[in-house]
Amino acid sequence: MPVEIPASRGEPASLYSWYVLGVLFLVYVVNFLDRNIISILAQDIKADLGLGDDQLGFLYGTAFAVFYALFGIPLGRLADSWYRGRLIALGLAVWSSMTALSGLAGSYGQLALARAGVGIGEASASPAAYSLLGDYFPVRRRALVLSIYASGLYVGGALSLPLGGWIAHAWNHSYAHGMAPFALAGWQVAFLAVGVPGLLLALWVLTLREPERGRAEGRPSPVVRPGAWGAFAGELAAILPPFTLWSVSRFAGELRRNLLLLAAIAAAAMILARLTGDAYQWGALGFGAYSVASWAQMLRATDRPAFALLFGTRAIMLALSGFGAIAFFSYALFWGTPYAMRTFGIGSDVAGMMLGFPTAVASAASSLTGGYLADLWKRRDPRGRLFVCMLAVALPVPLLYMALDISNVRVFYFVYPLIMFVAFLWVGPAAAAIQDCVLPRMRGTAGAIFILALSILGLGLGPYCTGKVAAVTGSLRVGMLSMIAVTPLALLLLWCAARQIGVAENTREVRARAAGEPC
Fold first, then answer.
1. pLDDT at site 220
2. What is the pLDDT of residue 4?
3. What is the C-alpha separation between 217 and 232, in angstroms, rounded?
4. Residue 199 to residue 101: CA distance in whole angstroms
5. 3-class DSSP state for residue 283?
6. pLDDT category, 141, cuts 50, 70, 90?
């Protein structure tokens, strides 16, 4: 049964609400720890499996991002119609198991499959968490609360460096010359060590109470809708080929349109794969692009109000594109640790300790600062949250130039956390800006689409493109500098979105009713 939590307009959040936020923060710490540990292990994986930088970029980014983004869609829709705490716990158990299985991978293909499994599991977390926190806290606190939640991402990502580096280094040092138990390498043991504890955390998450859905905005609705899992199966069929063809064939004219999209996307993927020699990369992204297009067709046919508010709102589409461009830059900072290890000749244990904890503090502080500043700015100007995002685009650029010209590792240890502080001001404000423009029943779906943009455009392309430029030029420094080229586009997209975001937020109910939403 749902529990009533005082989170309506003007009411303060309860102590239990902050407890839930704390638990979900821990979930996100584990989420990104499991996702990002490959950063500190990249050098060992590259040596053991004989990989190139472009392949490492694929493993960190695309192999994870495509499945994370795609499964986030049906799981986000499920979060809008089923118990959100249970959904998070189930996903946590899946991604923790797949992280542990990454430690048993013995080839590039096996590790890519395990990373895809981690992405599927992690796709459940944020859409459900965004929706859950939206009902536990008042609207006026939304950006700050989502920033606190988002800071778990950076804490987990940064903790993955010292923890993963220490485990891998200690294991390799203790068992040299092929004498390790079960012939496991240090990087494999690190995956196993961080994956198993997540299963215990999943049991904790199951104890969270479910708040009344929509009460924070005065639009109460049932927590669980009839046929939630049947609808989820339908949503899943809408994104997984060849079931997509059956899904769209039920609506007049959609099958022909879908086949044309399939042909165009397949042709583009084949051309890019031939030009770059990276069939895995463009095959995965082509699969993702076609699946998203198929799902959007289904959404338009089955939920026109949600389609109208998300895909039919110019401000949201511009904002999502801008957030994806920011994420391209932000996720490419994955290469900072491998760059330091190669440039300064330091080991994984030293790199993890000297970069992990400082970047953890800087990233978490950045997320909290961005959320607080965005809430404050939004009260004075409806564009305030997007202005904070624009700061996160402009401020890191000169610092990155500085960091990549540094020849003293101690100075690099100081400057790199500064980059992380200014580069991640945007995540909480960006998530809140999208949530503000939809109805409460659409929050999970909006969260999934937000993550889709970040994952496909940012995580799916940023690390890979950086690695590809590095592989072609023979310089990781050049690869990292190349990602700056996306920042002018990000600023332009966000500025155009900011000009319309206030109207989009204020007219959401009217536009939803015009598209068929019940009064």
1. 65
2. 43
3. 26
4. 13
5. helix
6. confident
pLDDT band of 336, cuts 50, 70, 90: confident
User: Which candidate, 102, 124, 126, places its Cα nearest to that of 115?
Assistant: 102
User: Global pTM?
Assistant: 0.77
Q: List residues bridging with 3 in a β-sheet.
A: 211
151, two tokens: 């800071």
Instruction: Report pLDDT digits (tens) over 227-237.
Output: 888 888 888 88
pLDDT digits (tens, 9 = 90+) for 85-112: 999 999 999 999 999 999 888 888 899 9
510 CB neighbour count, 10 Å cutoff: 10
**Domain boundaries, given as residue ranges, for the chain:** 15-208+227-237+303-514
The closest of 221, 224, 1, 18 to 133, measured between CA atoms, is 18
Please give the Cα distance from 323 to 449 (Å, whole number). 11
> Alpha-carbon distance 394 to 397, whole Å?
6
Contact yes or no for 445/295 (Cβ under 8 A) = no
Per the DSSP assignment, residues forming a β-bridge with 221 are: 213
Helix (H, G, I), strand (E, B) or coil at 242: coil
Question: Could you tell me if 460 and 68 are in contact, meaning their C-beta atoms sit under 8 angstroms apart?
Answer: no
Buried b (16+ CB within 10 A) or exposed e, 83-107: bbbebbbbbbbbbbbbbbbbbebee
Quote the CA–CA distance of 465 and 481 in Å, as a whole number.
11
Contact indicator for 30, 197 with CB cutoff of 8 Å: yes
- State pLDDT tens for residues 404-454: 999 999 999 999 999 989 998 998 899 889 988 988 888 777 877 888 888
Nearest residue to 34 (alpha-carbon basis) of 87, 96, 111: 96
Query: Distances from the Cα of 305 to the Cαs of 11, 41, 339, 517, in angstroms?
Result: 29, 45, 47, 6
Position 8 scores a pLDDT of 44
Q: What is residue 124's predicted lDDT score, i.e. its pLDDT? A: 87
Residue whose C-alpha is closest to residue 457's, from 327, 330, 272, 262: 327
- Beta-bridge mates of residue 213: 221
384 sits in which H/E element: helix 384-394
In contact, 363 and 421? CB cutoff 8 Å = yes
C-alpha 310, offset from chain centre? 18
Burial class (CB in 10 A: 0-12, 13-18, 19+), 447: buried
Task: Select the CATH number that applies to the domain covering 15-208+227-237+303-514 from these four: 3.30.70.100, 3.10.180.10, 1.20.950.20, 1.20.1250.20.
Answer: 1.20.1250.20
